[in-house]
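Memo to structure team: turn this sequence into structure tokens by end of day. - J.P.
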Amino acid sequence: MPTIKIGDKDCSFEGKKTILEVALDHNIDIPHYCYHPGLSIVASCRICLAEVAQPNPRNDNKLELIPKLVPTCQHLAVDGAEVLTESEKSLANRKAVMEYLLINHPLDCPVCDQAGECFLQDYSYKHGRGYSRFDENKVKNPKKDIGDHVLLYSDRCIMCTRCVRFTREVSGDGELGVNMRGNQAEIDVFPGRPLNNELSGNVVDICPVGALLDKDFLFEQRVWYLNSTPGIDGITASGDNIWVEHNEGRVYRIKPRENADVNQWWISDEIRYGWNFVHDPQRLDTPLWLEGHDQVECDWNHAYREVIDGIRSVTSAGKRLTAIISPMISCEDAYLMAKFARAIDPDALIVTGPTPIDGEDKEFAGGYKIYAEKAPNARGIRRVLEQLVGADQILDHTQLTALLNDRESGSEVGAVLITGNYPSPWITAALGEGVADRFVALIDTLPNRLTGKADVVLPAATWVEKAGTFENANGRLQAFEQAIQPIEFVRSEGQIALDLMAAAQIADPSRFDVNTVRDELGGVFTDNLHRATSEDVRVPDVQYVEI
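Reply from structure team:
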């Protein structure tokens, strides 16, 4: 295997890789701004320049120093080469580049959202001068509103052009360009073309400084207070890997988590901003039961008794329970909910909930894909339901709606247990009419046309408030972790199912644990489960230094 020496460390590599790529693979920090693994290489920022000595085939392969500094982001690694990242020339270049970049840069780190995760800030500390030799007036550029989600602070821009290349090579719309030249150069949108493509938020992620900022996150939180939990897109069928960033029980932003097999380095704006319903003021947060014509708050034990009594009164009369399992909940939650339904009524109908479809799938120039299917786990719930009851025992919601609205065959259904967890109203008029005059237990997160009519309403946790597994549109099973504690009195569907089994004296009381359920599912499920590991994420480009 070919090997190069970077500093005092021998680094092996395979295939055609640049020196910088090899360094990043081995957790070696070579400063860089313009380089990004998902974009073309332009070698424009020049801070990654280093001295390189490599074998000369015309001189018996003896190591010879290349006469000038070379950009490590662009120069291919050669077997036997040595890269002098800490030589006098390399260090002098870094100090010079940093001095040039800071000439017109405003000293507004205390009020900049990028502070704490800014490459310019970190490299200035590690490689810059402790003082400025520039006594002239700084070039001042205005703040610009360039799209629905993004603000451009032009005076902070270092012209790395990552954002420009992203809009041309990944999103494909090319809204951003470089205007003017020299110290007057600045990034801007083209007239009449705001940055409103469906991937626009990614330019904030790839900006190495505080030039491009997210309106939704602006001045909300200091990044060093945030905790990052590995998650999976809980809104669409993409299965995009994400970081859920939160503090003190509140989510503040969603960022992409690198996975070359799923979403590369990107996420859509739909995923990035679609989590806000988690903190919707209208969230269901306490159990409710129907007393007369009014919904009344109650404790969980009372709600559980009402559900058990309602279902048993129906089944004792010779009618059946129907359990609607939502594609918005995890595999583990779905399995336990169906398990409870079949335990309390062995003839219970198991039904998959509606899967919202919005338009058609859309693939972008860089290969990223947005899925029209707006449910994260339609395949996953069917997988576990088939394992529990068999494929021929499962109905979909359209078949159920037809059944419920048929006077003869529908009369056998006396109780309906419904799981929702959709980020928007989802109960159709036909389904609402179909469950009328039946005992209805609704497990959901947001109010809908049934919450005021259901006999019992149980508040459920969203996907960021629990751990579980989703199966995406390509059949990839992926685990996600709990990011925040559930709000107030809500519980996960899995815990509700276990509590209901205990209340019905079907099983002993127990606490919901995803690993226990996964072990119970076993086989194909656990053998194909992808979990977040350190290997899923590229080593951070900057090694932060404690001051």
